[in-house]
Amino acid sequence: GAVVSQHPSRVICKSGTSVKIECRSLDFQATTMFWYRQFPKQSLMLMATSNEGSKATYEQGVEKDKFLINHASLTLSTLTVTSAHPEDSSFYICSARALAGGETGELFFGEGSRLTVL
Amino acid sequence: GQNIDQPTEMTATEGAIVQINCTYQTSGFNGLFWYQQHAGEAPTFLSYNVLDGLEEKGRFSSFLSRSKGYSYLLLKELQMKDSASYLCAVMDSNYQLIWGAGTKLIIKP
């Protein structure tokens, strides 16, 4: 099946620094990528939807200036957590929808990135 | 509003059968997904239903009734490795996925 690679899988940073997480579709072109956040024992919370070449659409309550999303190509989207604080510590997961899959295409998930802000 | 309901936690015995239910109320319907998620890992795709009826895939089956806004995931011959959270998600009229909170399945020997 299709592969989505997310990097880094784990990152620890100091409060106030910025962290970039990459999401790559390795063997397909992804018109749309989604970024989720998941707190322990809770379901996925959609943060934003990014379409290649256009600005991301953020969900209500998600600060776009804090969580910068760039979808520069059909195979790469990045999430940058700026000026990270301990409350930003979470599990961040990306997913991608295949170009050929159409609107009902399956979502393929990255492995997730666990961010810990000290 | 849009809502997905599924039980928080279920317990079953190794070798048995378990059914995880999911009811939904969404703005439109473009399919229902079931995902498995082990602790600390990203979800993995299990099934997709867009038409009424039962889809069988090995030990796992998924059923959909659109008129009732209802689906279930059936797991047979349970194995210890099936201990995980099972997420129900519905794609709405805008092709956005609405996620349930997940059902934590505990398998006992």
How would you describe this protein?
The complex is a heterodimer of chains A (118) and B (109). With 118 residues, chain A is mostly beta strands. Chain A has no helices and 11 strands. In chain A, strands 2, 4, 5, 6, 9, 10 and 11 form a 7-stranded mixed beta sheet that branches. In chain A, strands 1-3-8-7 form a 4-stranded antiparallel beta sheet, with no helix packed on it. In chain A, strand 4 and strand 5 form a beta hairpin. With 109 residues, chain B is mainly beta. Helices cover 0% and strands 57% of the residues of chain B. Chain B contains no helices and 11 strands. In chain B, the strands form 2 sheets. In chain B, strands 2, 4, 5, 9, 10 and 11 form a 6-stranded mixed beta sheet that branches. In chain B, strands 1-3-8-7-6 form a 5-stranded antiparallel beta sheet, with no helix packed on it. Chain B is globular. The N and C termini of chain B lie far apart (40 Å).
Short description:
The complex is a heterodimer of chains A (118) and B (109). With 118 residues, chain A is mainly beta.
Question: Would you spell out the secondary-structure blueprint of this structure?
Answer:
The complex is a heterodimer of chains A (118) and B (109).
Chain A: E1 4-7, E2 10-13, E3 19-25, E4 30-38, E5 45-51, E6 57-58, E7 67-73, E8 76-81, E9 90-98, E10 107-109, E11 113-117
Parallel strand pairs in A: 2-11
Antiparallel strand pairs in A: 1-3, 3-8, 4-5, 4-9, 5-6, 7-8, 9-10, 9-11
Chain B: E1 3-5, E2 9-13, E3 18-25, E4 32-37, E5 44-49, E6 53-57, E7 60-65, E8 70-75, E9 84-91, E10 97-99, E11 103-108
Parallel strand pairs in B: 2-11
Antiparallel strand pairs in B: 1-3, 3-8, 4-5, 4-9, 6-7, 7-8, 9-10, 9-11
Largest sheet of chain B: 6 strands, mixed
Please give the radius of gyration of chain B in angstroms.
Answer: 13 Å
Main sheet makeup of chain A: 7 strands, mixed
- Which residue ranges of chain B are poorly predicted, with pLDDT under 50 across at least 5 consecutive positions? none
For the record, give the distance between the C-alpha atoms at the N and C termini of chain B, rounded to a whole number: 40 Å
